[in-house]
From TrEMBL:
It comes from the Bacteria. Keywords: Protein biosynthesis, Transferase. Gene3D superfamilies: 3.40.50.12230. Residues 2-177 form the Formyl transferase N-terminal domain. Attaches a formyl group to the free amino group of methionyl-tRNA(fMet). The formyl group appears to play a dual role in the initiator identity of N-formylmethionyl-tRNA by promoting its recognition by IF2 and preventing the misappropriation of this tRNA by the elongation apparatus. This is Methionyl-tRNA formyltransferase. It comes from Corynebacterium amycolatum. It holds the Pfam family Formyl_trans_C. Belongs to the Fmt family. The gene is fmt. It catalyses: L-methionyl-tRNA(fMet) + (6R)-10-formyltetrahydrofolate = N-formyl-L-methionyl-tRNA(fMet) + (6S)-5,6,7,8-tetrahydrofolate + H(+). (6S)-5,6,7,8-tetrahydrofolate binds at residues 110-113.
């Protein structure tokens, strides 16, 4: 089939490579977001998908919006059979949905109808899901409501952060997308309407959503820290300055009790620990939460690089202070 590939970030590169290297379909053009300012110098850089397309001499379209009459005409003139979409980042106007013969087919990183929306991987981890996956579906007017061609499942590991899980899904999803294109071309694959029950939504998370609330229990802090790593990045404040938390680990009841003993030995007159209170040992930095302690593994103070929490504590001596 003649395909226009629509995608922008690194996970979409995996799918484009799969279609270029392991399928017989022809990529006649790539749709991606305009060049953006990246890095310390804030110089204009192409999206990862654009960079790969240019390596393969594929024409690239970078409209700010798909509502513009000129870009709509360009898409029509390309006479595509299908437009596979992976994290493109632009809304598809209703008037373009039926332009390709087989429509626009989106690779979405959840098992629809679970976690429709912009952040399905983060939402699945934050919710404590044990299994997620990827789905291919035909785009229609509603938000991720279109009929589904196929799915692939992926177990969520206890230590997965959003980047770990998305990386695995990018590869299994790329295989699914390529198989979906083959099935559509052969006329052997027909989409099935999504069920109306078990629908959930995953809105885009912002920095304020990633703030750690120390009055929550250990398991929730663990999930949310992993869900927001690497972006937007879990964080707290200490002495009024932001402290980014790159990794934390919930401590067992036994280890939490041991941390309490260390705290009491250092300050016998102290009252019960306050949520957010730091306890520093030689090789462990712990923070009190609702039902015990979590260990800080990686932290990033303002203006510095991510570092081991123990190294940070040796220089900052934060013991007894309270994160807020």
């Amino acid at each position: 089939m003649r395909l226009i590939f629509a995608g922008t970030p690194e996970p979409a590169v995996v799918a484009l490579k799969k279609l270029l290297e392991d399928s017989h379909h022809e990529i006649v053009a790539v749709l991606t977001r305009p060049d953006a300012r990246r890095g310390r110098g804030k110089s204009l850089s192409p999206s990862p998908v654009k960079a790969l397309a240019l390596e393969h001499d594929i024409p690239v379209l970078t409209p700010t919006t798909l509502r513009d009459a000129e870009i709509q005409q360009q898409i029509r003139e390309l006479n595509a059979d299908c437009i596979p979409v992976v994290a493109y980042g632009n809304l598809v106007p209703e008037e373009l949905l039926d332009v390709p013969t087989h429509g626009w087919v989106n690779l979405h990183f959840s098992l629809l109808p679970a976690w429709r929306g912009a952040a399905p991987v983060q939402a699945a981890i934050a919710a404590g899901d044990e299994v997620t996956g990827a789905s291919t579906f035909r785009i229609e007017k509603g938000l991720d409501t279109g009929p589904v061609f196929g799915t692939v499942t992926e177990a969520i590991r206890p230590t997965d952060n959003a980047d770990d899980l998305l990386t695995r899904l990018a590869y299994s999803g790329a295989d699914l997308l390529a198989a979906t294109m083959d099935g559509i071309e052969a006329g052997a694959l027909h989409p099935t309407a999504q069920p109306e029950q078990d629908v959930s939504y995953a809105a885009k998370f912002g920095p304020e959503d990633a703030r750690i609330v120390w009055t929550q229990p250990r398991h929730l802090l663990d999930r949310r820290a992993r869900a927001f790593t690497p972006a937007p990045g879990a964080w707290t404040t200490l002495d009024g300055a932001r402290l980014k938390v790159g990794e934390l680990t919930p401590l067992s009841d036994e280890d939490s009790a041991a941390v309490d003993e260390v705290r009491k030995a250092a300050a016998p007159e102290a009252v019960a620990a306050t949520p957010g209170e730091l306890v520093v040992e030689k090789h462990r930095v712990s923070v009190r939460c609702a039902d015990g302690y979590v260990q800080l593994v990686k932290v990033q103070p303002q203006g510095k690089k991510m570092m081991d929490a123990s190294d940070w504590a040796r220089g900052s001596q934060p013991g007894g202070k309270v994160c807020e």
